[in-house]
Amino acid sequence: MSSLHADIVIDLKSKISSNILPEGQKLPSERELALQYEVSRNVIREAISVLRVEGLIMVQAGKGAYVTKPNPMMIAETIERIMKNYNTTLEDLLEVREGLEISIIKNVIKRATSEDSQILYKIYRDMEKNRTNVTQFAKLDLQFHTSLAESTKNPLYPVLLSSFMEMTQHVLFEFTRLIPESMVQAQEHHLALIKAIEEGDEDLAISTIISHMQVLREEIKVLKERNIIG
Amino acid sequence: MSSLHADIVIDLKSKISSNILPEGQKLPSERELALQYEVSRNVIREAISVLRVEGLIMVQAGKGAYVTKPNPMMIAETIERIMKNYNTTLEDLLEVREGLEISIIKNVIKRATSEDSQILYKIYRDMEKNRTNVTQFAKLDLQFHTSLAESTKNPLYPVLLSSFMEMTQHVLFEFTRLIPESMVQAQEHHLALIKAIEEGDEDLAISTIISHMQVLREEIKVLKERNIIG
DNA sequence: TTGCAGTAAAAAGTATAACCATATTTCTTT
DNA sequence: AAAGAAATATGGTTATACTTTTTACTGCAA
Fold it and tell me: Phi first, then psi: what are they for B132, rounded to 5°?
Protein backbone atom coordinates (compact mmCIF):
# COMPACT_ATOMS: atom_id res chain seq x y z
CA MET A 1 0.00 0.00 0.00
CA SER A 2 1.80 3.08 -1.25
CA SER A 3 0.74 6.65 -0.70
CA LEU A 4 -0.20 8.98 -3.49
CA HIS A 5 2.78 11.27 -3.18
CA ALA A 6 5.13 8.25 -3.29
CA ASP A 7 3.63 7.20 -6.61
CA ILE A 8 4.10 10.69 -7.99
CA VAL A 9 7.69 10.77 -6.79
CA ILE A 10 8.33 7.51 -8.65
CA ASP A 11 6.69 8.83 -11.79
CA LEU A 12 8.57 12.12 -11.75
CA LYS A 13 11.84 10.30 -11.08
CA SER A 14 11.33 8.09 -14.09
CA LYS A 15 10.56 11.14 -16.19
CA ILE A 16 13.76 12.77 -15.00
CA SER A 17 16.03 9.78 -15.55
CA SER A 18 14.50 9.11 -18.97
CA ASN A 19 15.15 12.73 -19.90
CA ILE A 20 11.50 13.51 -20.53
CA LEU A 21 12.30 16.13 -17.93
CA PRO A 22 15.91 17.07 -18.75
CA GLU A 23 18.25 18.99 -16.45
CA GLY A 24 17.29 22.62 -16.15
CA GLN A 25 13.74 21.94 -17.27
CA LYS A 26 11.07 23.76 -15.35
CA LEU A 27 8.43 21.54 -13.82
CA PRO A 28 4.78 22.45 -14.28
CA SER A 29 3.43 24.55 -11.44
CA GLU A 30 2.07 22.85 -8.36
CA ARG A 31 -1.49 23.64 -9.41
CA GLU A 32 -0.81 22.28 -12.88
CA LEU A 33 0.67 19.04 -11.53
CA ALA A 34 -2.26 18.67 -9.16
CA LEU A 35 -4.58 18.76 -12.16
CA GLN A 36 -2.43 16.38 -14.22
CA TYR A 37 -2.20 13.74 -11.52
CA GLU A 38 -5.72 14.44 -10.30
CA VAL A 39 -4.65 14.90 -6.70
CA SER A 40 -4.63 17.81 -4.29
CA ARG A 41 -1.87 20.37 -4.26
CA ASN A 42 -0.85 19.03 -0.86
CA VAL A 43 0.15 15.73 -2.37
CA ILE A 44 2.15 17.47 -5.08
CA ARG A 45 3.93 19.60 -2.54
CA GLU A 46 4.97 16.53 -0.56
CA ALA A 47 6.24 14.83 -3.70
CA ILE A 48 8.23 17.94 -4.64
CA SER A 49 9.51 18.12 -1.10
CA VAL A 50 10.88 14.58 -1.39
CA LEU A 51 12.55 15.24 -4.74
CA ARG A 52 14.14 18.35 -3.34
CA VAL A 53 15.63 16.50 -0.39
CA GLU A 54 17.00 13.91 -2.79
CA GLY A 55 18.63 16.70 -4.75
CA LEU A 56 16.80 16.02 -7.98
CA ILE A 57 15.03 19.35 -8.21
CA MET A 58 15.54 22.87 -6.97
CA VAL A 59 12.66 25.09 -5.95
CA GLN A 60 12.53 28.86 -6.14
CA ALA A 61 9.63 30.64 -4.52
CA GLY A 62 7.66 32.62 -7.05
CA LYS A 63 9.44 31.02 -10.00
CA GLY A 64 8.98 27.28 -9.97
CA ALA A 65 10.75 23.95 -9.60
CA TYR A 66 13.65 23.03 -11.85
CA VAL A 67 15.34 19.71 -12.54
CA THR A 68 18.93 19.72 -11.27
CA LYS A 69 21.93 17.42 -11.19
CA PRO A 70 22.15 15.92 -7.71
CA ASN A 71 25.10 17.44 -5.91
CA PRO A 72 27.93 15.06 -4.92
CA MET A 73 27.95 16.69 -1.50
CA MET A 74 24.73 14.86 -0.74
CA ILE A 75 26.89 11.80 -0.22
CA ALA A 76 28.80 13.62 2.49
CA GLU A 77 25.56 14.60 4.17
CA THR A 78 24.22 11.07 4.05
CA ILE A 79 27.43 9.58 5.38
CA GLU A 80 27.56 12.17 8.14
CA ARG A 81 24.02 11.32 9.23
CA ILE A 82 24.88 7.66 9.39
CA MET A 83 28.22 8.24 11.11
CA LYS A 84 26.42 9.91 13.99
CA ASN A 85 24.61 6.66 14.69
CA TYR A 86 27.61 4.37 14.40
CA ASN A 87 30.12 5.92 16.79
CA THR A 88 32.42 6.97 14.01
CA THR A 89 35.41 9.19 14.70
CA LEU A 90 37.34 11.59 12.52
CA GLU A 91 40.19 9.08 12.61
CA ASP A 92 37.92 6.40 11.17
CA LEU A 93 36.98 8.76 8.39
CA LEU A 94 40.58 9.59 7.67
CA GLU A 95 41.50 5.91 7.57
CA VAL A 96 38.95 5.32 4.86
CA ARG A 97 40.10 8.39 2.98
CA GLU A 98 43.66 7.11 3.08
CA GLY A 99 42.58 3.90 1.40
CA LEU A 100 40.67 5.90 -1.15
CA GLU A 101 43.64 8.14 -1.90
CA ILE A 102 45.93 5.14 -2.36
CA SER A 103 43.45 3.57 -4.73
CA ILE A 104 43.25 6.87 -6.60
CA ILE A 105 46.99 7.11 -6.98
CA LYS A 106 47.27 3.62 -8.39
CA ASN A 107 44.74 4.47 -11.06
CA VAL A 108 46.12 7.92 -11.72
CA ILE A 109 49.49 6.38 -12.52
CA LYS A 110 47.74 4.04 -14.94
CA ARG A 111 45.73 6.69 -16.74
CA ALA A 112 46.90 10.25 -16.12
CA THR A 113 47.81 12.36 -19.13
CA SER A 114 50.26 15.24 -19.33
CA GLU A 115 47.34 17.63 -19.22
CA ASP A 116 46.38 16.20 -15.84
CA SER A 117 49.89 16.96 -14.64
CA GLN A 118 49.63 20.51 -15.93
CA ILE A 119 46.41 21.04 -14.01
CA LEU A 120 47.99 19.74 -10.81
CA TYR A 121 51.05 21.96 -11.30
CA LYS A 122 48.82 24.95 -11.81
CA ILE A 123 46.91 24.33 -8.58
CA TYR A 124 50.25 23.79 -6.82
CA ARG A 125 51.48 27.17 -8.01
CA ASP A 126 48.20 28.84 -7.01
CA MET A 127 48.67 27.42 -3.54
CA GLU A 128 52.18 28.84 -3.41
CA LYS A 129 50.69 32.26 -4.10
CA ASN A 130 48.11 31.82 -1.36
CA ARG A 131 50.27 30.96 1.60
CA THR A 132 48.80 33.92 3.46
CA ASN A 133 45.16 33.21 2.76
CA VAL A 134 44.11 30.23 4.86
CA THR A 135 40.62 30.02 3.40
CA GLN A 136 41.90 30.07 -0.15
CA PHE A 137 44.63 27.57 0.69
CA ALA A 138 42.12 25.07 2.10
CA LYS A 139 39.95 25.55 -0.97
CA LEU A 140 42.85 24.90 -3.32
CA ASP A 141 43.88 21.85 -1.33
CA LEU A 142 40.43 20.40 -1.93
CA GLN A 143 40.84 21.27 -5.60
CA PHE A 144 44.22 19.59 -5.77
CA HIS A 145 43.04 16.29 -4.40
CA THR A 146 39.84 16.40 -6.42
CA SER A 147 41.82 17.01 -9.61
CA LEU A 148 44.02 14.10 -8.70
CA ALA A 149 40.88 12.00 -8.33
CA GLU A 150 39.62 13.22 -11.68
CA SER A 151 42.84 12.07 -13.32
CA THR A 152 41.72 8.49 -12.68
CA LYS A 153 39.05 9.01 -15.36
CA ASN A 154 36.71 7.23 -12.96
CA PRO A 155 33.99 9.78 -12.09
CA LEU A 156 33.25 8.08 -8.80
CA TYR A 157 36.60 8.98 -7.26
CA PRO A 158 36.24 12.78 -7.31
CA VAL A 159 32.68 12.46 -6.09
CA LEU A 160 33.60 10.28 -3.13
CA LEU A 161 36.86 11.97 -2.27
CA SER A 162 35.37 15.46 -2.24
CA SER A 163 32.66 14.16 0.06
CA PHE A 164 35.20 12.74 2.45
CA MET A 165 37.33 15.85 2.36
CA GLU A 166 34.32 18.05 2.92
CA MET A 167 33.83 16.31 6.26
CA THR A 168 37.37 17.07 7.40
CA GLN A 169 37.88 20.47 5.77
CA HIS A 170 37.43 22.27 9.08
CA VAL A 171 40.39 20.34 10.47
CA LEU A 172 42.69 21.58 7.73
CA PHE A 173 41.30 25.07 8.08
CA GLU A 174 41.64 25.34 11.86
CA PHE A 175 45.08 23.78 11.93
CA THR A 176 46.45 25.94 9.15
CA ARG A 177 45.15 28.99 10.94
CA LEU A 178 46.80 27.82 14.14
CA ILE A 179 50.13 26.82 12.58
CA PRO A 180 50.57 28.44 9.15
CA GLU A 181 53.96 26.74 8.77
CA SER A 182 52.09 23.47 8.17
CA MET A 183 51.37 24.73 4.68
CA VAL A 184 55.04 24.28 3.76
CA GLN A 185 55.01 20.56 4.46
CA ALA A 186 51.68 20.10 2.71
CA GLN A 187 53.11 21.75 -0.38
CA GLU A 188 56.21 19.57 -0.27
CA HIS A 189 53.94 16.54 -0.27
CA HIS A 190 51.89 17.90 -3.15
CA LEU A 191 54.96 18.55 -5.27
CA ALA A 192 56.45 15.16 -4.45
CA LEU A 193 53.17 13.56 -5.45
CA ILE A 194 53.05 15.21 -8.85
CA LYS A 195 56.64 14.24 -9.59
CA ALA A 196 56.23 10.66 -8.43
CA ILE A 197 53.15 10.33 -10.61
CA GLU A 198 54.93 11.81 -13.62
CA GLU A 199 57.72 9.31 -13.15
CA GLY A 200 55.24 6.50 -12.64
CA ASP A 201 56.77 5.72 -9.27
CA GLU A 202 53.81 4.12 -7.52
CA ASP A 203 55.60 3.21 -4.30
CA LEU A 204 56.93 6.72 -3.81
CA ALA A 205 53.58 8.31 -4.60
CA ILE A 206 51.80 6.03 -2.15
CA SER A 207 54.28 6.56 0.66
CA THR A 208 53.98 10.29 0.06
CA ILE A 209 50.20 10.25 0.34
CA ILE A 210 50.46 8.13 3.48
CA SER A 211 52.76 10.74 5.02
CA HIS A 212 50.30 13.40 3.93
CA MET A 213 47.49 11.59 5.74
CA GLN A 214 49.71 10.99 8.75
CA VAL A 215 50.17 14.72 9.09
CA LEU A 216 46.41 15.23 9.02
CA ARG A 217 46.07 12.55 11.69
CA GLU A 218 48.48 14.44 13.92
CA GLU A 219 46.69 17.68 13.23
CA ILE A 220 43.44 16.11 14.40
CA LYS A 221 45.20 14.92 17.55
CA VAL A 222 46.54 18.38 18.33
CA LEU A 223 43.23 20.11 17.67
CA LYS A 224 41.43 17.60 19.89
CA GLU A 225 43.94 18.08 22.70
CA ARG A 226 43.40 21.82 22.54
CA ASN A 227 39.64 21.30 22.39
CA ILE A 228 39.40 23.23 19.15
CA ILE A 229 37.45 20.40 17.56
CA GLY A 230 35.29 17.66 19.07
CA MET B 1 15.09 33.29 3.90
CA SER B 2 14.26 29.85 5.22
CA SER B 3 10.85 28.24 5.09
CA LEU B 4 8.95 27.18 8.14
CA HIS B 5 9.23 23.46 7.59
CA ALA B 6 13.00 23.77 7.19
CA ASP B 7 13.23 25.38 10.62
CA ILE B 8 11.19 22.59 12.13
CA VAL B 9 13.34 19.97 10.44
CA ILE B 10 16.41 21.57 12.00
CA ASP B 11 14.78 21.65 15.43
CA LEU B 12 13.61 18.04 15.28
CA LYS B 13 17.01 16.93 14.03
CA SER B 14 18.72 18.57 16.98
CA LYS B 15 16.25 16.91 19.34
CA ILE B 16 17.00 13.56 17.76
CA SER B 17 20.77 13.88 17.82
CA SER B 18 20.72 15.18 21.39
CA ASN B 19 18.59 12.20 22.41
CA ILE B 20 15.70 14.31 23.61
CA LEU B 21 13.95 12.15 21.04
CA PRO B 22 15.75 8.80 21.39
CA GLU B 23 15.60 5.98 18.88
CA GLY B 24 12.27 4.23 18.88
CA GLN B 25 10.55 7.19 20.49
CA LYS B 26 7.18 8.09 19.06
CA LEU B 27 6.88 11.64 17.84
CA PRO B 28 3.86 13.69 18.91
CA SER B 29 1.01 13.48 16.42
CA GLU B 30 0.94 15.87 13.51
CA ARG B 31 -1.80 17.94 15.10
CA GLU B 32 0.10 18.03 18.37
CA LEU B 33 3.28 19.21 16.65
CA ALA B 34 1.27 21.79 14.73
CA LEU B 35 0.10 23.21 18.04
CA GLN B 36 3.57 23.09 19.60
CA TYR B 37 5.26 24.89 16.73
CA GLU B 38 2.24 27.08 16.08
CA VAL B 39 2.10 26.25 12.41
CA SER B 40 -0.36 24.43 10.20
CA ARG B 41 -0.43 20.67 9.89
CA ASN B 42 0.80 20.99 6.31
CA VAL B 43 4.07 22.46 7.45
CA ILE B 44 4.51 19.64 9.95
CA ARG B 45 3.75 17.09 7.26
CA GLU B 46 6.43 18.52 5.00
CA ALA B 47 8.96 18.51 7.83
CA ILE B 48 8.12 14.89 8.63
CA SER B 49 8.35 14.06 4.97
CA VAL B 50 11.89 15.43 4.85
CA LEU B 51 12.99 13.53 7.94
CA ARG B 52 11.55 10.36 6.49
CA VAL B 53 13.48 10.73 3.25
CA GLU B 54 16.63 11.33 5.25
CA GLY B 55 15.96 8.09 7.09
CA LEU B 56 15.69 9.66 10.53
CA ILE B 57 12.10 8.67 11.21
CA MET B 58 9.65 6.03 10.08
CA VAL B 59 5.99 6.79 9.60
CA GLN B 60 3.07 4.37 9.86
CA ALA B 61 -0.38 5.45 8.85
CA GLY B 62 -2.75 5.33 11.76
CA LYS B 63 0.05 4.84 14.28
CA GLY B 64 2.48 7.69 14.16
CA ALA B 65 6.08 8.64 13.43
CA TYR B 66 8.97 6.95 15.20
CA VAL B 67 12.62 7.89 15.46
CA THR B 68 14.83 5.35 13.68
CA LYS B 69 18.52 4.75 13.05
CA PRO B 70 19.33 5.89 9.52
CA ASN B 71 19.96 2.82 7.39
CA PRO B 72 23.41 2.47 5.79
CA MET B 73 21.70 1.56 2.53
CA MET B 74 20.77 5.21 2.16
CA ILE B 75 24.37 5.76 1.12
CA ALA B 76 23.89 3.31 -1.73
CA GLU B 77 20.75 5.12 -2.81
CA THR B 78 22.46 8.49 -2.71
CA ILE B 79 25.49 7.27 -4.62
CA GLU B 80 23.27 5.59 -7.19
CA ARG B 81 21.35 8.81 -7.76
CA ILE B 82 24.56 10.69 -8.31
CA MET B 83 26.13 7.98 -10.47
CA LYS B 84 23.27 8.31 -12.92
CA ASN B 85 24.32 11.89 -13.58
CA TYR B 86 28.03 11.27 -13.89
CA ASN B 87 28.25 8.56 -16.53
CA THR B 88 29.44 5.99 -14.06
CA THR B 89 29.73 2.34 -15.06
CA LEU B 90 29.61 -0.85 -13.04
CA GLU B 91 33.32 -1.19 -13.74
CA ASP B 92 33.96 2.19 -12.15
CA LEU B 93 32.03 1.07 -9.12
CA LEU B 94 33.96 -2.15 -8.90
CA GLU B 95 37.26 -0.33 -9.20
CA VAL B 96 36.41 1.77 -6.17
CA ARG B 97 35.23 -1.29 -4.30
CA GLU B 98 38.52 -3.01 -5.00
CA GLY B 99 40.39 -0.12 -3.40
CA LEU B 100 38.04 -0.28 -0.44
CA GLU B 101 38.51 -4.02 -0.03
CA ILE B 102 42.29 -3.68 -0.12
CA SER B 103 42.13 -0.95 2.49
CA ILE B 104 39.86 -3.17 4.58
CA ILE B 105 42.26 -6.10 4.40
CA LYS B 106 45.20 -4.00 5.51
CA ASN B 107 43.30 -2.91 8.60
CA VAL B 108 41.80 -6.32 9.27
CA ILE B 109 45.28 -7.77 9.46
CA LYS B 110 46.18 -5.07 11.95
CA ARG B 111 43.18 -5.53 14.19
CA ALA B 112 41.29 -8.77 13.65
CA THR B 113 40.82 -11.08 16.64
CA SER B 114 40.39 -14.84 16.64
CA GLU B 115 36.66 -14.34 17.12
CA ASP B 116 36.56 -12.44 13.85
CA SER B 117 38.18 -15.43 12.18
CA GLN B 118 35.61 -17.74 13.71
CA ILE B 119 32.78 -15.64 12.32
CA LEU B 120 34.32 -15.70 8.85
CA TYR B 121 34.83 -19.46 9.03
CA LYS B 122 31.22 -19.92 10.06
CA ILE B 123 29.93 -17.89 7.12
CA TYR B 124 32.28 -19.82 4.85
CA ARG B 125 30.81 -23.11 6.06
CA ASP B 126 27.26 -21.79 5.68
CA MET B 127 28.09 -20.93 2.10
CA GLU B 128 29.39 -24.46 1.53
CA LYS B 129 26.00 -25.75 2.64
CA ASN B 130 24.18 -23.39 0.31
CA ARG B 131 25.82 -24.17 -2.99
CA THR B 132 22.41 -25.02 -4.44
CA ASN B 133 20.59 -21.92 -3.22
CA VAL B 134 21.74 -18.97 -5.32
CA THR B 135 19.78 -16.38 -3.38
CA GLN B 136 21.14 -17.58 -0.08
CA PHE B 137 24.66 -17.80 -1.47
CA ALA B 138 24.58 -14.19 -2.64
CA LYS B 139 23.23 -13.13 0.74
CA LEU B 140 26.00 -14.96 2.59
CA ASP B 141 28.61 -13.49 0.27
CA LEU B 142 27.45 -10.04 1.29
CA GLN B 143 27.64 -11.16 4.91
CA PHE B 144 31.16 -12.50 4.45
CA HIS B 145 32.55 -9.29 3.05
CA THR B 146 30.64 -7.17 5.55
CA SER B 147 31.99 -9.25 8.43
CA LEU B 148 35.45 -8.81 7.01
CA ALA B 149 34.83 -5.06 6.97
CA GLU B 150 33.59 -5.19 10.56
CA SER B 151 36.82 -6.87 11.61
CA THR B 152 38.60 -3.57 10.91
CA LYS B 153 36.81 -2.16 14.01
CA ASN B 154 36.20 0.90 11.88
CA PRO B 155 32.39 1.21 11.61
CA LEU B 156 32.65 3.13 8.36
CA TYR B 157 34.00 0.18 6.39
CA PRO B 158 30.99 -2.16 6.73
CA VAL B 159 28.65 0.72 6.05
CA LEU B 160 30.40 1.74 2.85
CA LEU B 161 31.24 -1.73 1.61
CA SER B 162 27.69 -3.03 2.05
CA SER B 163 26.47 -0.01 0.11
CA PHE B 164 28.85 -0.73 -2.73
CA MET B 165 28.03 -4.41 -2.76
CA GLU B 166 24.33 -3.68 -2.71
CA MET B 167 24.75 -1.91 -6.03
CA THR B 168 26.41 -4.93 -7.65
CA GLN B 169 24.52 -7.73 -5.92
CA HIS B 170 22.42 -8.41 -8.99
CA VAL B 171 25.62 -9.13 -10.94
CA LEU B 172 26.66 -11.84 -8.51
CA PHE B 173 23.14 -13.20 -8.41
CA GLU B 174 22.61 -13.37 -12.17
CA PHE B 175 26.02 -14.82 -12.88
CA THR B 176 25.80 -17.48 -10.19
CA ARG B 177 22.43 -18.47 -11.56
CA LEU B 178 23.90 -18.67 -15.04
CA ILE B 179 27.09 -20.50 -14.08
CA PRO B 180 26.71 -22.16 -10.66
CA GLU B 181 30.28 -23.49 -10.90
CA SER B 182 31.51 -19.96 -10.25
CA MET B 183 30.64 -20.54 -6.61
CA VAL B 184 33.56 -22.93 -6.28
CA GLN B 185 36.15 -20.34 -7.21
CA ALA B 186 34.50 -17.71 -5.02
CA GLN B 187 34.71 -20.08 -2.07
CA GLU B 188 38.35 -20.84 -2.79
CA HIS B 189 39.05 -17.14 -2.63
CA HIS B 190 37.13 -16.76 0.59
CA LEU B 191 39.01 -19.58 2.28
CA ALA B 192 42.36 -18.31 1.01
CA LEU B 193 41.48 -14.88 2.38
CA ILE B 194 40.69 -16.15 5.87
CA LYS B 195 43.90 -18.15 6.01
CA ALA B 196 46.08 -15.33 4.69
CA ILE B 197 44.58 -13.00 7.29
CA GLU B 198 45.14 -15.48 10.09
CA GLU B 199 48.77 -15.80 9.07
CA GLY B 200 49.07 -12.05 8.73
CA ASP B 201 50.16 -12.41 5.12
CA GLU B 202 49.08 -9.04 3.74
CA ASP B 203 50.47 -9.51 0.24
CA LEU B 204 48.74 -12.86 -0.23
CA ALA B 205 45.45 -11.55 1.15
CA ILE B 206 45.55 -8.55 -1.14
CA SER B 207 46.41 -10.52 -4.25
CA THR B 208 43.57 -12.88 -3.38
CA ILE B 209 41.03 -10.09 -3.08
CA ILE B 210 42.28 -8.63 -6.36
CA SER B 211 41.70 -11.97 -8.06
CA HIS B 212 38.29 -12.06 -6.44
CA MET B 213 37.45 -8.67 -7.91
CA GLN B 214 38.91 -9.66 -11.25
CA VAL B 215 36.44 -12.53 -11.42
CA LEU B 216 33.58 -10.14 -10.74
CA ARG B 217 34.90 -7.89 -13.49
CA GLU B 218 34.81 -10.76 -15.94
CA GLU B 219 31.34 -11.72 -14.78
CA ILE B 220 30.15 -8.22 -15.55
CA LYS B 221 31.71 -8.47 -18.99
CA VAL B 222 29.98 -11.76 -19.75
CA LEU B 223 26.61 -10.58 -18.48
CA LYS B 224 26.90 -7.41 -20.55
CA GLU B 225 27.83 -9.37 -23.67
CA ARG B 226 24.76 -11.52 -23.20
CA ASN B 227 22.65 -8.44 -22.52
CA ILE B 228 21.54 -9.81 -19.17
CA ILE B 229 22.55 -6.59 -17.49
CA GLY B 230 22.91 -3.04 -18.81
C1' DT C 1 -12.80 -16.17 33.24
C1' DT C 2 -11.79 -16.33 28.59
C1' DG C 3 -12.50 -15.25 23.78
C1' DC C 4 -14.37 -12.76 20.25
C1' DA C 5 -16.95 -9.16 17.80
C1' DG C 6 -18.17 -4.71 17.38
C1' DT C 7 -17.38 -0.05 18.12
C1' DA C 8 -15.18 4.15 19.25
C1' DA C 9 -11.05 6.88 19.39
C1' DA C 10 -6.69 8.38 17.50
C1' DA C 11 -3.63 9.16 13.91
C1' DA C 12 -1.97 9.60 9.34
C1' DG C 13 -3.60 10.44 4.38
C1' DT C 14 -6.22 13.24 1.19
C1' DA C 15 -8.98 17.15 -0.59
C1' DT C 16 -10.49 22.13 -1.02
C1' DA C 17 -10.31 26.72 -0.69
C1' DA C 18 -8.38 30.84 0.58
C1' DC C 19 -4.65 34.11 1.54
C1' DC C 20 0.24 35.80 1.44
C1' DA C 21 4.85 36.93 -0.60
C1' DT C 22 7.69 37.02 -4.42
C1' DA C 23 9.00 36.91 -9.17
C1' DT C 24 7.65 37.57 -13.87
C1' DT C 25 5.12 39.60 -17.43
C1' DT C 26 2.32 43.07 -19.46
C1' DC C 27 0.74 47.47 -20.06
C1' DT C 28 0.66 52.23 -19.31
C1' DT C 29 2.88 56.56 -18.88
C1' DT C 30 6.48 59.65 -19.61
C1' DA D 1 12.36 53.71 -25.88
C1' DA D 2 12.67 53.54 -20.96
C1' DA D 3 10.65 53.56 -16.50
C1' DG D 4 7.28 52.48 -13.57
C1' DA D 5 2.94 50.42 -12.20
C1' DA D 6 -0.49 46.94 -12.43
C1' DA D 7 -1.81 42.22 -13.47
C1' DT D 8 -0.51 37.45 -13.35
C1' DA D 9 1.70 33.19 -12.04
C1' DT D 10 4.01 30.60 -8.53
C1' DG D 11 5.47 28.70 -4.31
C1' DG D 12 4.48 29.12 0.97
C1' DT D 13 1.07 28.95 4.54
C1' DT D 14 -3.32 28.43 6.92
C1' DA D 15 -7.69 26.26 7.95
C1' DT D 16 -11.12 22.79 7.73
C1' DA D 17 -13.36 18.60 6.46
C1' DC D 18 -13.41 13.97 5.08
C1' DT D 19 -11.11 9.09 4.53
C1' DT D 20 -8.46 5.14 5.88
C1' DT D 21 -5.78 2.52 9.06
C1' DT D 22 -4.54 1.09 13.54
C1' DT D 23 -5.34 0.47 18.30
C1' DA D 24 -7.95 0.13 22.46
C1' DC D 25 -12.01 -0.64 24.82
C1' DT D 26 -16.35 -2.56 25.83
C1' DG D 27 -19.72 -5.89 26.25
C1' DC D 28 -21.67 -10.21 25.11
C1' DA D 29 -21.36 -15.24 24.72
C1' DA D 30 -19.13 -19.65 25.60
Answer: -100, -15
- Assess whether A55 (CB) lies less than 7 A from strand D: no
- Residue B212 CB in 7 A reach of strand D: no
* Cβ under 8 Å to A: B residues 142-201: 154-157, 159-160
Say yes or no: B109 contacts chain A, CB-CB below 8 A.
Answer: no
State whether residue A141 sits within 8 Å of chain B by CB. Answer: no
Q: For chains A and B, what is the number of CB pairs under 8 angstroms?
A: 132
For B38: left if phi > 0, alpha if psi spans -120 to 50, otherwise beta; the answer is left
Is the CB atom of residue A85 positioned under 7 angstroms from any atom of strand D? no
At A92-132, the pLDDT tens digits run: 999 999 999 999 999 999 999 999 999 999 999 999 999 99
Which three-class secondary structure state does DSSP give residue B53? helix
Q: For residue B143, what are the CA distances in angstroms to A79, B112, B146, B166, B184?
A: 21, 16, 5, 11, 17
Q: How far apart are alpha carbons B55 and B69 in whole angstroms?
A: 7
Within B112-133, where are the H helices? 114-129
pLDDT tens digits, one per residue of B28-82: 999 999 999 999 999 999 999 999 999 999 999 999 999 999 999 999 999 999 9
In angstroms, the separation between the Cα of residue B157 and the nearest Cα of chain A is 7
| Contact by Cβ (8 Å): A45, A134 | no
Please give the backbone phi and psi of residue B70, each rounded to the nearest 5 degrees, phi first.
-65, 135
A198 has pLDDT over 80? yes
**CA–CA dist A86, A81 (Å, integer):** 9
Q: Measuring from the CA of residue B34 to each C1' atom, give the nucleotide at the shortest distance.
A: D14
Write phi, then psi, for A59 (nearest 5 degrees).
Answer: -115, 135
pTM, rounded to two decimals: 0.93
